[in-house]
Design goal:
The complex is a heterotrimer of chains A (308), B (248) and C (381).
Chain A: H1 7-42, H2 49-70, H3 78-100, H4 109-131, E1 147-149, E2 155-157, H5 158-180, H6 182-192, H7 194-199, H8 204-226, H9 236-251, H10 256-276, H11 279-296
Antiparallel strand pairs in A: 1-2
Helix pairs in contact in A: 1-5, 1-8, 1-9, 1-10, 2-3, 2-4, 2-8, 2-9, 3-8, 5-6, 5-8, 6-8, 9-10, 9-11, 10-11
Chain B: E1 9-18, E2 21-31, E3 36-40, H1 47-55, E4 62-67, E5 70-71, H2 77-83, E6 85-88, H3 100-107, H4 114-119, H5 124-136, H6 152-164, E7 170-174, H7 182-195, E8 200-204, H8 208-214, E9 217-222, E10 225-230, H9 232-237, H10 239-246
Parallel strand pairs in B: 3-8, 3-9, 6-7, 7-8
Antiparallel strand pairs in B: 1-2, 1-4, 4-5, 9-10
Helix pairs in contact in B: 3-6
Chain C: H1 11-31, H2 34-59, H3 67-86, H4 102-106, H5 122-146, H6 151-171, H7 173-176, E1 187-188, E2 191-192, H8 196-222, H9 224-234, H10 236-240, H11 246-272, H12 282-295, H13 300-320, H14 322-338, H15 343-363, H16 375-380
Antiparallel strand pairs in C: 1-2
Helix pairs in contact in C: 2-8, 2-11, 2-12, 2-13, 3-5, 3-11, 5-11, 8-9, 8-11, 12-13, 12-15, 13-14
The chains are: A mainly alpha (308), B alpha/beta (248), C mainly alpha (381).
Chain lengths: 308, 248, 381
């Protein structure tokens, strides 16, 4: 399949597809980070994760409209306001959901899965009733438009670079929170031994709620970033949920580094194959390879061998 | 040490490491037929891990475990059971949603394959055997109760009964009297004494009085290694043992 | 001896089976017009899947979110046969290549793909309806259960399979009919399946097959294998150390569930007249789980009622209040998990049955209690 292209063209194809893959990678990382916190650290399956993300996207859509109508002078900066609001909106919904549903189901992971699926249906219908069934897109500020030429054959879009920078900075934040802060230590302590963590004075109930809220908040930020490269509809979140779970599981639940590495390999594989095969076959092959590897190595790429 | 013939179980150079931490380190010991071997040692010495390794629950990093000259380390858990090794866990593990009768029935050594289990019939032989075991473990009046309703001690007995019905040649018990009332302890001691009469047993136990009662030989483990081995009198007099374990 | 031998049915279970038979074979046909009865025929095909889920999930603790895959495979096997029968050269004479299914012609295929050829045979197709899903389940089962993947990981990976198969079917239009599926099915060995009479006959065939599956499921649950499944769900390690190859049992029950789902899928194709990827993917697969959960994940009869009820509600609500239905379905997921984990069957046996028993005892003190007498009473009697 390579014979039709010259070497320099092949190089450019790989570079461009590689870059497209990097954007996909950023989306995966942003979505998967929230899940890595919720699923990896708490063991909770949140099938409504995509809908939390979409909430962030809708918030961004509103902020963008608000700025263009009332604060056109500040429009270039609206995105940063939107991101913060998205974090708090999705986070607040997360706190509410943890309090009303999740906390009753910590010992029944499969049931959490079903309940949050129900929640995702409700949220989807809610979005459809409130925002309409059509997909909405935001106006991207001027400075994010256009692309940067790298060589004659290769150019990279600026919004893509921006999303990537976002993905990297948010990953760093999550890493610092999880592994350098006191809160992160508490979350990991609870994950390892809930009773003992409670006994040494950690407020497990509140830490759980906050963890879930932060995970959902990160999803909201992901949704916000998502509007820079695509439009948003009520069911957009569901499209990514299986991929995202595979990313987290493939990386080895609980390992932030693993999540990033697996998001990278899956997105690169998919986007490079997409150029040579039809999009659907590329996706099928990627998923099959991931599932195949998971069958051989169920613990994922990065995980410790532990004493049972 | 050479490995003479006639041993039921030969453990040689057994090692397991979890991410570099050697929970069991180059351990060797030999168990004779009809022997009651007790493993003692401080918490974290690797006692339970040794049993896990023998019965296949944990995969060893290195070494060999031979049961009647058959290598166990390469076998699956269920194959090890069929070879004649039974294992009781530290916390009682019985099927809470099933009745005492059904718990024992599942352990009855017949119909192990999928289709064997489909074709399995509850015939008179099975029923008699279950009745016999139930009497032995003091649960003959509880046969149609769900296991969830048993007391902690009764669950321990039930699990012992589930092993007995398989009539294993080597029985491994992890703290069989832990968490029992005094009355239950006395009954259990009596039960164990009856069980160990015609098979080999490896027991992990902390209760020294109880150990002295039943042990043929004692292994003292410390940090995954054998600290001392011999009769109860021998290990009690060993200064190393007194320092790390008995002295506390 | 205090424990009697196991029989296939207790008196209560037998009554349950008879009541369901009356509902399916007498009440529904009397109460419904032809159109509605055909709809219930469709719901019954989902009940096959739900029964399989009771065995896998309720009894065995294995939650598969990919039952749509097996339902679809069974359905497609049937649809391929029917499509070939419908695509005679005479029927398809306007195509550029007559004699092949229309969607192949639209996608510029000039020859029937070789893997379609065996589906000219009805016998082969009927065998494939069961065997193809079972082979798939076997491969997935061996790979996952041998490596001790279970719980949520298994659920996520089976869900991924549902996604993969849907994308594959939609992507390979020329071979599969794509997103529209395989449509315009006409006759089964010359018998027109589109007429009202045929639909009615198929409804009864559905009912009979459902009872065959129910009896098989009942037999499995009553055998020692059924008790081993429950034991495995609660204490997997103990089962292993009682000498059972746990993975083998899981593979078996997963394959059995797949076979049931395959039969359901094939009956769906016959009853409804088409098969499409919308019945294979993530959404239908997880909805099949909710049929089972609403009916009661521990009760095979409950699963049938669950499938009928949820689908009936879906049709009714989405006809009159399409917006409300997703709220309703979403709420149902949450309510069933949080308030009624054992579903309708649980509500029946925990809340309603004791009351009925109480009432009967109150009115007629001499009546036999509905609850089986304890062994001691039996001995005394």
């Amino acid at each position: 399949m390579f014979s039709d292209y010259s070497m320099s063209e092949l190089g450019a194809i790989f570079a461009m597809q590689g870059f497209a893959g990097l954007i996909l990678f950023s989306v995966f990382v942003l979505m998967a980070l929230g899940l890595a916190i919720i699923f990896g650290q708490m063991g909770v399956i949140n099938m409504a994760h995509g809908e939390f993300m979409i909430l962030g996207a809708y918030v961004t859509y509103f902020v963008s409209n608000f700025f263009s109508a009332f604060l056109p002078g500040l429009f270039p900066a609206y995105f940063f306001v939107a991101m913060i609001l998205a974090f708090f909106a999705s986070g607040a919904l997360g706190l509410l959901v943890e309090w009303s549903i999740i906390r009753h189901l910590y010992k029944r992971p499969l049931d959490t899965l079903l309940a949050t699926w129900g929640l995702s249906l409700i949220l989807q219908q809610f979005y459809r009733s409130v925002f309409g069934a059509r997909e909405v897109g935001v106006t991207i500020p001027n400075w994010m438009m256009g692309s940067m030429p790298v060589t004659d054959l290769i150019e990279v879009p600026i919004n893509g670079i921006f999303v990537m920078i976002l993905a990297v900075s948010i990953s760093l934040c999550v890493y610092v929170m999880m592994f350098r802060s006191r809160w992160g230590k508490q979350v990991r302590a609870i994950n390892q031994n809930r009773v003992m963590a409670g006994a040494v004075g950690i407020n497990t109930e509140w830490t759980d709620r906050l963890t879930f809220g932060i995970g959902c908040g990160v999803a909201g930020v992901a949704g916000s970033a998502f509007t820079m490269i695509g439009s948003t509809g009520p069911t957009s979140g569901q499209l990514y949920i299986v991929d995202t779970f595979l990313v987290v599981v493939f990386g080895g639940a609980g390992s932030i580094l693993g999540t990033i590495a697996s998001a990278f390999s899956i997105s690169q594989a998919q986007s490079i194959m997409e150029f040579f095969l039809s999009g659907s076959m590329a996706k099928v092959l990627t998923l099959l390879v991931v599932v195949g590897i998971l069958m051989i190595r169920p613990q994922g790429l990065f995980s410790l061998k532990l004493r049972k | 040490m050479t490995a003479p013939q006639g041993y039921l179980l030969k453990v040689e150079g057994l090692t397991v490491s979890f991410d570099g931490f050697k929970a069991v380190n180059d351990l060797s010991f030999y168990v004779e037929p009809n022997e009651c071997r007790v493993i003692i040692g401080p918490n974290g010495a690797g006692k339970t891990t040794v049993l896990d390794l023998i019965c296949g629950r944990t995969k060893a990093t290195d070494g060999s475990v031979k049961f009647r000259e058959k290598e166990l380390l390469t076998m699956r858990e269920d194959q090890i059971v069929h070879a004649g090794v039974g294992r009781k866990f530290q916390t009682p593990s019985v099927y809470e949603d099933l009745t005492v009768f059904e718990n024992l029935e599942i352990s009855y050594p017949k119909g192990y394959s999928v289709f064997g289990a489909l074709a399995f019939r509850r015939d008179a032989v099975v029923q008699e055997r279950i009745q016999e075991i139930a009497e032995m473990i003091f649960l003959e009046d509880m046969l149609s109760e769900k296991a969830a309703f048993l007391s902690h001690g009764q669950k321990q007995w039930l699990e012992i009964g589930m092993l007995l019905i398989q009539d294993p040649e080597l029985l491994m018990l992890d703290e069989p009297v832990a968490g029992m009332s005094v009355a239950e302890r006395v009954k259990t001691a009596e039960l164990l004494n009856r069980i160990i009469a015609d098979r080999s047993v490896i027991v992990i136990e902390h209760d020294m009085g109880f150990v002295e009662d039943i042990a043929t030989r004692v292994n003292v483990l410390h940090q995954g290694k054998m600290l001392s081995e011999g009769s109860m009198a021998h290990v009690k007099a060993d200064p190393k043992v007194i320092e790390v374990y008995l002295g506390h | 001896m205090t424990i009697s031998k196991t029989s296939l049915f207790t008196r209560q279970e037998l009554i349950g089976f008879i009541v369901l038979a009356v509902v399916i074979f007498v009440l529904l046909p009397l109460a419904l017009d032809n159109f509605r009865l055909n709809l219930f025929g469709k719901y019954l095909t989902y009940a096959f899947v739900a029964i399989g889920l009771v065995l896998c999930w309720g009894a065995g603790g294995i939650l598969s979110l990919g039952q749509g895959v097996f339902f679809g495979l069974g359905g497609y096997c049937m649809a391929m046969f029917l499509k070939l029968e419908a695509s005679t050269p005479e029927n398809t004479s306007i195509q550029s290549t007559p004699g092949i299914p229309d969607f192949m012609d639209w996608n510029q295929l000039t020859e029937l793909p070789s893997w379609w050829v065996p589906f000219y045979s009805l016998t082969f197709s009927l065998v494939a309806v069961v065997i193809v899903p079972v082979i798939f389940a076997f491969i997935i089962g061996v790979a996952m259960f041998r490596r001790r993947v279970g719980g949520v990981y298994f659920a996520i990976i089976t869900q991924a399979f549902a996604a993969i198969l849907t994308i594959l079917i939609i992507g390979q239009q020329g071979y599969t009919g794509g997103v529209n599926g395989i449509t315009d099915l006409r006759t089964l060995k010359g018998w027109d399946i589109r007429t009202d009479e045929a639909k009615e006959v198929l409804y009864y065939v559905n009912g009979v097959l459902l009872f065959v599956v129910l009896v098989i499921a009942q037999f499995v649950r009553k055998s020692k294998l059924g008790r081993i499944l429950i034991a495995m769900r609660d204490q997997e390690d103990r089962v292993r150390f009682s000498g059972y190859d746990v993975a083998g049992f899981k593979i078996f029950i997963f394959c059995l569930g797949a076979a049931f789902a395959g039969i359901g899928g094939a009956m769906f194709t016959l009853q409804v007249g088409f098969m499409s990827p919308t019945l294979v993917g993530i959404v239908p697969s997880i909805e099949m789980v909710i049929f089972c959960a609403v009916g009661g994940r521990l009760s095979i009869l409950g699963a049938v009622y669950g499938a009928l009820l949820v689908n009936w509600a879906k049709t009714t609500f989405s006809e009159s209040f399409p917006e409300l239905w997703l709220f309703g379905l979403g709420g149902l997921f949450i309510a069933v998990v949080m308030l009624f984990p054992n579903g309708l069957a649980g509500v029946w046996s925990e809340k309603i049955m004791p009351r009925i028993a109480g009432l009967m005892e109150g009115r007629k003190p001499t009546a036999k209690p509905l609850v089986a007498p304890s062994p001691k009473e039996k001995e005394a009697a």
